[in-house]
Amino acid sequence: MKKRFVFFMIGALLILGACGGNSEASGSSESETVTIGYFPNLNHAPAMVAKQKEMYEDHLGENVNVEYQTFPDGSTFMKALATGEIQGGLVGPGPAMNNFISGVDVQIIGASSTGGTVIVSRDGSGIESWEDIEGKTFISPRVGCTHDVQFETYMKEKGITSERIGGSMTHVTGEPARYQSMFENGDIDVATAPEPWASVMEAEVDANVVIPTSDVSFGETLPAAVMVTSDDMIENNSEQVQKLVDAHKEAVQYINENPDVAIDITIEGIADITDQQLEKNVMESAWERTDFTYEVDADVIQEFGNSSYDLQFLKEKPNFEGFVNTSFIQ
Description:
Layout: H1 4-14, E1 32-38, H2 45-52, H3 55-60, E2 64-70, H4 74-82, E3 88-91, H5 93-102, E4 106-115, E5 117-121, E6 137-140, H6 146-157, E7 170-173, H7 179-184, E8 190-194, H8 197-205, E9 208-211, E10 223-230, H9 231-236, H10 238-257, H11 259-274, H12 280-287, E11 290-292, H13 298-310
Helix pairs in contact: 2-10, 2-11, 8-12, 10-11
C-alpha cells in the first residue's frame, strides 16, 4: 500500500523551498510557477519541442510562469517531483515505478515515446552477440533504471545475469553522454544506450549493435519515457494537469507531422544541456529507432514491473493499481 504520509511529511518540510507552487487556486489572478522536468535524451524530445514552441505557455495561460529543469537520471527527477521542486515532466518508467512502490505519490498520465534502447559493444571488445557478453562490464544510467531492466531481462532469458544476483556480468553506472569517452578509454565493454547516444557511438567510436531496439526486452512496447505528475496536482489542480497533457499531446503530434524540424529542435536542446552538438545524420538514425506517442498501456507497465521484481530490483511483486491514469489523454 502506498505510504501517502511520506509525501505529506516531505512536502510539509520542504514546501517553502520549492521552486514552483501549485497551492494557489486555478482561478487565481496572481502569477504562479509550474516547472517541467526532462532529460537530454531523444525520447524526451516532446519536452524540448514544447519548450521551443512555447506550447506549455500557450496552454497554461499568461498567469502561469513556465520553467524547465533538466536531470541526469530518474532518481534525481523523482526526488524533485516528491518535494514539489517540479510539478511534472518526462522520466523513464523504471524510476517512476520504483518511487510509486516506495510510497511516493506519482501517477503516469501519458507516454512520450517507445523504442530507442540499443545495446552496443565497444569496438575491439570481441563482443559481437549476446553470447559474448558473459563476464563483461556493462553500463546503464542507474541501477534498476528502464534501460538496465530491459537489458538484464533479455540477458536473464538467455541464462546470463549480473554479479548483483549471482551472475558474471559487472555493472557500472554513468550518464549516457559520457559513454563515448568510456568506450574510448576501454573502461566498459557494453552500454545500454538510450538514443541518440547509441547512434553517436556507432558514428564516433565504431560501436557495434549487439541487441537492437526490436529485440531487446520491451523494446517496442514499453514507453521509453512517460509523463508523470503528483497525486497532489491531480487531486487539487486537475484543470492545470489537463492543460499540461494537452500541451504534451500537441508536441507529440507536431513531432510526427514535422520530423525534420523536430530533429533540429532536439539537436539544439541536447546541445544546450550537454554541450555536445550532434550531427543531423546521427540524429536521423536514432529517430528511426524511436516512435513518439502519448498513449500508454497499463498492462505493459505491469509486465515491466514484474520483470523488475524477477531481477530482484524490487523486494515485492508490484501492484500498480492507481499508477497509470489515462483520463487526461482521452
